[in-house]
Amino acid sequence: MKSLILLLSATIIISCTNSPSNNFSPDVTPDDISTHITYFASEELEGREAGTANEAKAANYIADLFRDYNLEPAGDDNTYFQEFTINTAVLRNPHSTDTTAGEKRLSKNVAGLLQGTGNSDELIIIGAHYDHLGYGEFGSLYRGDEPRIHNGADDNASGTAGLLELAHYFSENRPQTDILFLAFSGEEMGLLGSAHYVDNPTVDLDNALAMINMDMIGRMTDKKLMIFGIGTADKWEAIMDSANTGNLTLNLVKDGTGASDHTSFYYKDIPVLHYFTDTHADYHRPSDDTEYINMNGTALALHHLVRVVVQLDELDKTELAFTEAPGEQQRSMSLEGPTLGVLPDYGYEGEGMKITGVTKGRAAEQAGVKGGDIIIGLGGEKLADIYGYMGALNKLKKGQLTTITVLRDGKEMTFDLQL
Hints:
By secondary structure, this protein is α+β, with helices and mostly antiparallel strands. Helix content is 28%, strand content 21%.
């Protein structure tokens, strides 16, 4: 049956996804990952913007599979859904104090609990956000004149597919420890869903052993996998290495925060991990499509995560104590000013902000900045890290003429920059 499904056109797959197939393999497979991502990143869902009817379709797909996998409803009122309200006026003007203005939208987290075989009250939390940018009103880096659908295949249909694959796998291979599976919405608008969840949890978060987040796990190259949060528990690094039987090249980053939902749990003193295969030129643009996803690479990342959970299943909270991660902690990385068209190297831990590439035709590329440069100054301000970069950028205005300073092959260079 699976081979037949894979031969169907994307249109036929999409047309039947309101009733998810019961023929997914309980193993983590590239084929099933592809089926899930193809649905979430379909034109039919129009980018899954939080608080829209298409977000609700995606939420129902997730909830239906949670039910098929015998996960218990862990949302509100014995359902799989936890609702929260988004005020778009605040999103359009973060400095506004008028919370009565603007469109109010109802959005949903999706929560399912897998009961373990043991007697402990402790649990492992696995999460991913399923919303994206819709037509790009909030957060898009697309600068075209006509609105276009942002399908978000990597961001974050890939992580959502991973969440469903893991829910299925562990439902057939139950650990001793309970696992709470959380699909968040509102992430693209500022971690709204996860922030709401940690303030209104449906389980006792004091029992949480760890929270593992997946965001953009679909573009693995050369078997490279980045994992954040290593500094939030002393045992993490040893667990990561022990789980790496697939010979991945692991980039282990200590920081427990960043622009994804693990940050909300870090601030509740819960050890976190964040799986990530790095950014790319299609990030927050309409071109983030299914055709560019490395399904085999996504499966490799999930296989590593499975082995991590198996090791966590042997631990308790006294053996995985939370530690405060080094580095400047930020709840979000929002941009209110202009953008330069650079791709940050999120694994870089030195002085300044290293970039992996620049977008052709944008301000940085026109100034002479290149991939591999380390930005150490912007608008006359010295930059310590990515957070300093974003703070400096928020002070600048579109159309302003300023300067940008980079390190290239150890040499300091300053360029004129037209925003």
